[in-house]
Fold this sequence. Notes:
The chain has helices at residues 14-25, 27-34, 65-70, 86-97, 107-123, 140-147, 162-174, 178-188, 196-199, 202-216, 235-243, 305-321, 361-371, 403-413, and strands spanning 5-10, 38-44, 60-62, 76-79, 101-104, 128-129, 153-159, 226-227, 246-257, 260-271, 283-290, 294-301, 349-356, 376-382, 391-398, 419-428. By secondary structure, it is an alpha/beta fold. The chain folds into three domains: 5-133, 3-Layer(aba) Sandwich (Rossmann fold), CATH 3.40.50; 140-302 and 327-334, 2-Layer Sandwich (Dihydrodipicolinate Reductase, domain 2), CATH 3.30.360.10; 349-428, Alpha-Beta Plaits (2-Layer Sandwich). The strands form two sheets. Strands 7, 8, 9, 10, 11, 12, 13, 14, 15 and 16 form a ten-stranded mixed beta sheet that branches. Strands 3-2-1-4-5-6 form a six-stranded parallel beta sheet, sandwiched between helices. Bound molecules: NADP nicotinamide-adenine-dinucleotide phosphate and L-homoserine (HSE).
Amino acid sequence: MPAPLRLGIAGLGTVGVGVIRLVQAEADRIALRAGRPVQIVAVSARDRAKDRGVDLSGFEWEDDAVKLAQRDDIDVYVELMGGDAGPAKASTEAALAAGKDVVTANKALLAHHGQALAETAEAAGRVIRFEAAVAGGIPVIKALTEGLAANRIKRVMGVMNGTCNYILTRMEETGQGYNVLFDECARLGYLEADPNLDVGGIDAGHKLSLLAAIAFGTRVDFANVELKGITDITLEDIRHAADMGYRIKLLGVAQMTGRGLEQRMTPCLVPYGSPLGQLEGGTNMVLLEGSAVGQVVLRGAGAGEGPTASAVMADVIDIARGIRLPVFGQPATTLAEAVPARSATPAPYYLRMSLLDKPGALAKIATCLGEAGISIDQMRQLNQPGEPDEKAIVLIVTHKAAPADVAHATAQFRATGVLLGDPVAIRIEEV
Ligand code: NAP
Ligand code: HSE
C-alpha cells in the first residue's frame, strides 16, 4: 500500500468539519481514486473545547495555524479559516516555505494575494489548489484550467454567491423581508464570517476576479471589479421585475474587450425563463464561452458543508494522484498585468423612481433620457394604495443604452425638481 497523503486542516467550521466528515465517510473510495490513502493528521482552530459534532480525538491539535502548516508529519496544508490576511496568509506562506502543497477555500486571500502566493508556490515547486473558493461544489476551476485549456475564453458570467441568490429568490417566493432571509442563510452556513462580504457583492467579486485571471491569463485584479451588492434591492423591485418577466440576480461578468478587461459584479435583471433566471436558492451557475467549445454552463450548490468539502477533496485527490498545475492555469510569472476597463457594453435598463404627480413631471424625466440619447421601450405609472396623491411610482424600461449615459441621465433626474428619493437603475442582461 503506498504511503498515505497526510493533511493538516486549519479551520473547523462549516467547511473544515465537512472535510473531516467526507474523509471519514468515503475513506476507501478516496484511497482507490487517489491511488493512496488520505489521512488527516492534525487540525487547528481557535477554540479547542468547542463541540463540532465530529470526533477529533484521532488528530493532533495545534493552537497556532502557522505551527500546523510547518509540521513535519503533514504533506498538504488545508487552509479553511478564511480572511484575506492574518493567520490565513501567514500560515499559507509558512506552509509553502516548509515545502507543503496548499489547498484552500479562501477566495478573499487569493483575490488579494493570489499573484504573490502563486509566484512563491511555483518558485518552490509547490501547488496551491482552490476549487472550493469559487462556486462551492461546482468544478469550475478544473473546467477552466483543464477541460477548456485550449480555448481562448471570450466571456465568464455567472451567479457566484449562494447567500445573495438565496435571499433574492426567497424574497420573491415568500414575500418575506431581507432580514428574515438573511438569518436563514446564517443557519444554513452560507454566510461569510463578515456577512457584508456576501451581501455587499465582495465575495462574488473575489470569485469573479479569480476566474478572470485563469480565463484571460491576467494577474488577479480584484481592485478593478465594479461592485454593487444586493442591500438596496427591495421587494418592490423584485415584484416589478417579475411582472415584466424578469428576475433580479447578483450577476458577474468578465470579458476581455478592445479597451481592456471588464469585470463587474452587480445586480441585474435576467429573463425569467433563462437558465440564470431559473436559478433558485443557494445554487450557483457559471457560464463559460470558449473560442472552440462555445458555451459551457455549470450549475450546482455554491455553498454549504457538503458541496464545499467535495471541492476541497477533489483538490486533495489531484495532489495525491501527482497532478501538479500552475495555480492560475499558466505559470504565474507569465500572467499579464490586466488593463482595467469600465463596463461600456450597452444594455436595456430598468429604472424606478418616485415623482411628484403633477403636470410635466414625467416630461422632465423623458427629456433627461432623450438628452442622454436614451430611448424608452416601456413605461408604467403606478398608483400606490395608501400613498399620498402627489406621489407617482414610474417604471421605465429603456432600449439599449451605454452605462455611462444611464448614469448621466439619472444624475440629471435630480436636477428636475420632480424626483422624490433616489432613482433605481438596474441593467437588464439578455442572457
Ligand atoms: P467558519 O464556519 O466561520 O469557520 C472558520 C473556522 O476557522 C472556525 O473553525 C474557526 O475556529 C477557525 N478560525 C478562524 N480564525 C482563526 C484563527 N485566527 N486561528 C485559527 N482558527 C481560526 O467558516 P467556513 O464557512 O467554514 O469558511 C471557511 C473558508 O471557506 C472561508 O475562506 C470561506 O470563504 C470559504 N468557503 C466557505 C463556504 C461555505 O459554504 N461556508 C463555501 C466556499 C468557501 P473556531 O471554530 O474555534 O472559532
Ligand atoms: N458565502 C458564500 C456564498 C459561501 O454565499 O456563496 C460560498 O463561497
